[in-house]
Design a protein that fits this description.
alpha/beta; Rossmann fold; 8-stranded mixed beta sheet; 4-stranded mixed beta sheet; 16 helices; 12 strands
């Protein structure tokens, strides 16, 4: 069995498309981006920390263009390969390697220094220079397809897949408007996109029809929750057809996976609360995620984080959304964007006011019940707010994960008047939590104080990975390696009748 590890919009889309073209059985492993930070166990498979790798037994590849070549060459009957004896073999290899080294490489610098780096490290000149680099190299594609529908050999090959991804990435970066031939085609194609019949099935045993590779590419995109290509039959050039592939990417993204938005919510006079919000179609409930540590995530307008992306709740945010929960990741408020951030602030009237406004906003926006979910020091925020907010202002429920059960700096959860909490309370704790503030042996005292909660329950986690400081995000304290299971159990309990 082939195994492909994949992130949304990443270069792993190339082998994913190839696997669907070839109708091969495979297992897709979705990872958060960047996996080197948010899925540390992935480093054991690929020390580079990058996607993709493609594995089958002892075979392991890490370069997307090489995967396209490998899959095409090992399945020559599919017609995606070009034989060494073919006159176009040299051009075929050149396009495969150019797709990454020349067309994708400059875009990675645009992406890094225009979006991923913190504001103070962004480099507008680098973005401008490498945008020009990419557009200049794109002229080679324009010239190649001026007289032919395909890049080489007079037919669709792995080279078209590899170069198609480079144009898809350009669309994602907003560069497609600067493409040479007829950029207005983007809107026209996107406006006429339709899902293929039977897109919800598996790739095993599907018959090749007149739609051929294009239907399978779209199917792959939907199944992987990623961007999807689409052909333009009858278009005058392959270049335009590839632009069409990129154009449809955005329309399918909306169908496949909701995109996060950044919201600045006024809470107190002169104060705003920044939140990263993921809203699935028809949410069943909402969760307000309260990270641990000092809580100063410093969310940038593009949705990236300056700090805390490895935190259990932050790195698991998409898992909550995938369960049909509107997911709200809460930063420190605008008047606490410097050290000590939320330290010394979590049990104050001002913090409660911020959370009250957040709960009200989420409830009004999604029209669903709203739960506070805290982890580590975030449980001090969630628990304290639940003891203060009552009636219509209260959350609909509280989830406490890796709770602070003893503390020499701030009042632990067990010392709060938890008997005031009347809403449902779920406690999630790792039996091997090694953090001195979170001993599992103190859990009974926490559960005993939930005397007036409408319902209460304890989920005990075991196993997973234990790396680094015992109180840090990738120790047992942060449910490392158990994210999917733990989030699933939390969602099931929240949504239980």
């Amino acid at each position: 069995m082939l195994h492909l590890h994949h992130c949304v919009s990443a270069r792993s889309f190339r082998p994913l498309w190839m696997l669907e073209e070839l109708q091969l059985p495979y297992q897709l492993h979705m990872l958060p981006f960047p996996p080197r930070a948010l899925a540390r166990s992935f480093l054991e498979l690929n020390p580079l920390g990058t996607v993709p790798p493609l594995t089958q037994g002892d075979m392991r590849l890490t370069e997307s263009a090489a995967m396209c070549q490998y899959l095409a060459a090992t399945h020559p009957d599919a017609g995606l390969d070009v034989a060494p004896t073919h006159p176009a073999y040299g051009a075929y290899l050149n396009w495969l390697h150019m797709s990454d080294a020349t067309l994708t490489f400059p875009q990675t610098l645009v992406l890094r220094y225009g979006r991923f780096e913190p504001t103070e490290r962004q480099q507008p000149q680098v973005v401008q220079d490498y945008t020009r680099w990419f557009l200049a190299r794109l002229r080679a594609v324009e010239a190649a397809v001026a007289q032919s529908e395909y890049l080489c050999a007079g037919r669709f090959t792995a080279a078209d897949v590899a170069v198609g991804y480079a144009l898809l990435l350009a669309q994602h970066l907003g560069l497609a408007a600067q493409f040479g031939p007829d950029p207005s085609l983007l809107a026209a194609v996107a406006g006429t996109a339709r899902l293929p019949a039977g897109h919800g099935g598996t790739n095993a045993g599907r018959r090749r029809t007149g739609r051929t590779h294009h239907a399978r590419a779209r199917h792959a995109a939907l199944k992987a929750c990623t961007l999807a290509p689409q052909p333009l039959h009858g278009a005058p050039s392959m270049f335009k057809r590839l632009i069409g592939i990129a154009a449809l990417a955005l329309s399918f993204t909306a169908l496949a996976q909701p995109q996060p938005t950044v919201v600045d919510l006024p809470t107190r006079p002169g104060v705003t609360q920044r939140m990263l919000v993921i809203t699935p179609p028809e949410p069943k409930a909402a969760v307000v995620l309260l990270a641990g540590g000092h809580g100063g995530l410093q969310i940038f307008p593009n949705g990236s984080f300056k700090w805390g992306e490895g935190n259990f709740l932050v790195r698991s945010r998409q898992l909550f959304a995938d369960k049909g929960l509107m997911t709200v990741v809460v930063d420190a408020p605008s008047d606490r964007q410097r050290a000590p951030f939320l330290n010394g602030f979590r049990q104050t009237a001002e913090h409660v006011a911020d959370l009250q406004a957040t709960i009200a906003w989420a409830r009004a926006t999604a029209k669903v019940p709203v739960w506070l979910v805290g982890t580590s020091r975030g449980t001090q925020s969630a628990a304290y707010a639940a003891t203060v907010l009552q009636g219509a202002d209260a959350p609909d429920g509280v989830v406490l994960t890796a709770s602070i059960l003893s503390d020499d700096k701030q009042r632990p959860v067990t010392a709060m008047p938890l008997e005031k909490v009347q809403v449902p309370v779920l406690v999630v704790h790792h039996q091997q939590d090694g953090c001195a503030y979170c001993a599992y042996t103190d859990i009974p005292s926490l559960m005993a104080k939930l005397t007036h909660a409408r319902r209460s329950h304890l989920i005990t986690a075991t196993g997973g990975k234990n790396q680094g400081d015992a109180c840090a995000a990738f120790a047992h304290h942060g449910f490392n390696g158990l994210e999917t299971d733990v989030v699933g159990q939390i969602a099931d309990w929240i949504l239980a009748p």
